[in-house]
Amino acid sequence: MAEASLIRPEGTADDWTIPQSWSSYTAEEHATWDKLFARQAQMLPGRVTPEFIEGLDVLRLSRPGIPDFEELSDRLMRATGWQVVAVPGLVPDEVFFDHLANRRFVSGNFIRRPDQLDYLQEPDVFHDVFGHVPLLANPVFADYMQAYGQGGQRAAQLGAIDRLARLYWYTVEFGLVRSDDGLCLYGAGIVSSHAESIFALDDPSPNRIGFDLRRVMRTKYRIDDFQQSYFVIDNFEDLLSQTLNTDFAPVYQALAGESEIAPDAVLATDLVYHRGSQAYARSKTDA
Ligand SMILES: [Fe+2]
Which residues are Fe cation-binding (predicted)? Predict the structure, then answer.
């Protein structure tokens, strides 16, 4: 993940990477990974897109303990030419885009404390590796992530990072995908969260709306709680081709004249899979 303005911590390279220092993880830290992994691995089959499970398998992620990035990168490199590199936390947007554009995924090297199993604001190694890396073993999704990084480099020049960030948010982090039996999860923010893996798919509260690139880039999002709307893609091929075939510069220009869309809004033009009651979000406002 990226953030606009940050100061590079001491000890990081120019590209903000650090050694993962795998041998420094404690037994308790490995046990935290195992606990989180077991909980998600039990719940996700049948809920997550099959490409995610295939990725876990190809990358041998089910082995106990926090993965060693060197070994993980070897497998990922053989599958799709991607690598995983360690960073101390959030990195600036342009650094993040540069890594993605060069098929490097940045991952926090720390893991949450045992009392933070359910929620953590800053992405840790479980979110970054378990949530994001399995789909990087899928050739189409791997190309989409690189295309996003290249799009980010262009958006930075056009002053449109905030627009493009919404595309990342509603696909890479919180996306749903159609399947033969309904909807499936694929967003890393969902699949790395036990509670949101259930909420995003089963709860009557959020909207589930067909993905539309321009619509998504107009839609604000929540960073502190479950999403009020999830966007559903048809498949990864379609997401990739829409991203590659869109000339973003005129889109950014056109969007500048259009209003923002609230996170809970449903438009007359939306393809609505499920119109949310928003009961959950309302219960939070009333509390
Ligand atoms: Fe993430």
Answer: 127, 132, 173
Q: Is 127 annotated as a binding residue?
A: yes
Q: In this predicted model, what pLDDT tens digit does every residue of 192-226 receive, in sequence order?
A: 999 999 999 999 999 999 999 999 999 999 888 99
C-alpha span between 72 and 91 (Å, rounded)? 21
Which DSSP category does 66 fall into? S
User: Does 173 show up as a binding residue in the annotation?
Assistant: yes
Expressed in angstroms and rounded, the spacing between residue 122 Cα and the centre of ligand 1 is 9
Asked whether 130 and 61 are in contact (CB, 8 A), the reply is yes
pLDDT tens per residue across span 156-202? 999 999 999 999 999 999 999 999 889 999 999 999 999 999 999 99
Helical spans, DSSP H, in 159-235: 161-168, 188-191, 194-202, 213-217
| Centroid of ligand 1 to alpha carbon of 268 (angstroms) | 31
Could you tell me the CA-to-CA distances from 261 to 112, 176, 216, 251, 264 in Å, in that order? 33, 19, 9, 16, 8
Is residue 132 annotated as involved in ligand binding? Answer: yes
Q: E strands within the chain?
A: 2-3, 83-87, 91-92, 104-108, 176-179, 182-185, 207-210, 229-233, 272-274
Decide: 75 and 97 in contact? Cβ < 8 Å. no
- The pTM of this model reads 0.95
Residue-level pLDDT at 2: 67
Tokens 């479980």 correspond to: 126
Query: Are 84 and 133 in contact, with CB atoms under 8 Å apart?
Result: yes
Cα of 258 vs centre of ligand 1, distance in Å, is 28
Ligand 1 ion local residues (Cβ < 5 A): 123, 188
Q: Where are the domains of the chain?
A: 2-286
The fold adopted by the segment(s) 2-286 is: Phenylalanine Hydroxylase (1.10.800)
